[in-house]
Amino acid sequence: MKGRRRPKTALPVPGAAEAAGGLYRPCDYEREVPVTTSEPEPYRTEFRRDFQRTLHSPSFRRLQGKTQLFPSEEHNFYRTRLTHSLEVAQIAKSIAIRLNNNDSYFLRNPINLDLVEFAGLAHDLGHPPFGHNGEYILDELMRNFGGFEGNAQTFRILTKLEKKITTEFPPQSAVVNSVDGRKGLNLTFRTLASVLKYDKEIPITVQERERQDNHKKPCKGYYACDSVLVKTIKRTIKAVSVDRFKTIECSIMDLADDIAYSTYDIEDAFAAGFLNPIAILSVSDEIKRNIVTAIQEKINKEYSDLANDERHFTIDDLNRALGSVFAAPLHISEEVFRRRWTASELGAYVGGEVYRTSVLLAKSPYHRTQFTSDLIGRLVRDVSVNKCCDNPIFWQVRPSIGEFGAIESLKSICMTQLINSDKFLAEKNRARHIISRIFFALRESGSDLLPEDWRLVYRLYQDDEVQRNRAICDFVSGMTNSYCIEFYERLYGVRPPSIHKPQATL
């Protein structure tokens, strides 16, 4: 069958939720390359097939070697991108289960749990080595070649880079008849839509990004080279009429990611000794003002259907939000946070016994576990559906403004306090040095330093500078922390790995 396209076969019979109509239709199950199976599988839906393909993919396994907040090699307690993704998938599924049982529409038309769990499992596949530091560095290196961004890379991995399906059957090479035949995992269009968080094409050149004022950090969206497939997905599931392309499953995953980030990353920061509750409550008013400004902008965007007085968010609101999170574990009455505190006043109040309970919460595994469990349960139970359009496929989930403020405050304070520490700045400088030197070495050598399978792709685009750089970026971004360091040592180290050690193909 070499060189022939797969015969188009009937889709497996959907489960009861899909058959009920409403949220899922036959067009959702279409794929870029039609699927053939040796025998029908009525017991397995197309979304379940997609979930399983992703779970078994090398890209998913490599998340165990990529940084979430702290380098995993520092301590076996810290979360990796893999464990973070598992937690996001679980939280997303919990939100969907609750909505399926509490919302009148979803009682009749349940959200597909496999699809939601897939979105949580896959949402961080595109993150490079060294966490967000790696993302910023690769974006700087790719500013004139389409940029780099984790969510865009996730979509590219699923649709192009994973070595499972090509236009040739059975698949044998990335290059088919002198054409790029890569089709990634070949997931259904509705499955791919669940990881399209940002409905925006990333500009190719830095000049265009400067005109749009989004050149100072990675631009959220999808790559220009993937825009044709994105348009096909949107056209197939009939999303032309919506203002913002973001499915209900993607919205659930996005919120679950924020919940996980604002709780479990805080737990890691507590365990690492970088933060404790008092440090969070006592950040300066200047930092709080900057955080409030950023949160207010997000509230105005995400809660635009509410009246202005319902969307107001101040330092007082931030203090109340943080107070609601830490009052019970620190045995502080929430009434305390109803007045305006300066940092010095709050610092004076929370001495003595309160400081002791703060340290206990940060250091005791039992107290930390109870704290995160209670907080996640509270946030999941607070989620409601914003029925923002006529099409329920594009309804959005969100917490109340109070809980949204708590989530965003915890995220912002955690990042603000950590990224400004000397230890994190040193790690950022190290990541920049390693990734930049690898990238430039690969660019200068042509395809010589690339593994054999990547050379084929690079040489295919010999006359296309944008795609050549994209191939290098794809290779580097797929590395784990340890493989990135090992590759650097091969190029520049005094004692590099043995030349007899096989080089990973990614």
Tell me the layout of helices and strands:
Layout (H helix, E strand, L loop, with lengths): L15 H4 L26 H10 L2 H5 L18 H22 L1 H5 L4 H10 L8 H11 L8 H12 L13 E2 L2 E2 L8 H5 L12 H6 L15 H10 L11 H24 L5 H5 L3 H18 L12 H12 L16 H7 L3 H11 L1 H17 L2 E3 L9 E3 L2 H19 L2 H23 L7 H9 L4 H13 L3 H12 L14
Antiparallel strand pairs: 1-2, 3-4
Helix pairs in contact: 2-6, 4-6, 4-12, 6-12, 7-20, 12-18, 12-19, 14-19, 15-19, 17-18, 20-22, 20-23, 21-22
| Strand content bin | under 5%
Could you please say which CATH topology of the largest domain applies here? Hypothetical protein af1432
CATH architecture of the largest domain: Orthogonal Bundle
Q: What is the CATH class name of the largest domain?
A: Mainly Alpha
User: Whole-number average pLDDT?
Assistant: 88
Largest sheet: 2 strands, antiparallel
Total strands? 4
How many whole angstroms does the radius of gyration measure?
24 Å
What series of H and E elements makes up the topology?
A: HHHHHHHHEEHHHHHHHHHHEEHHHHH
Feature tags:
single chain, 506 residues, mainly alpha, Hypothetical protein af1432, two-stranded antiparallel sheet, 23 helices, 4 strands, globular, disordered N terminus
Word description of this protein:
The protein has 506 residues and is mainly alpha-helical. It has three domains: 16-66 and 75-236, Orthogonal Bundle (Hypothetical protein af1432), CATH 1.10.3210.10; 248-423, no CATH class; 428-492, no CATH class. Helices cover 53% and strands 2% of the residues. The chain has a two-stranded antiparallel sheet. A two-stranded antiparallel ribbon has the order 3-4. α15 (315-326) packs across α19 (401-419). The radius of gyration is 24 Å and the shape is globular.
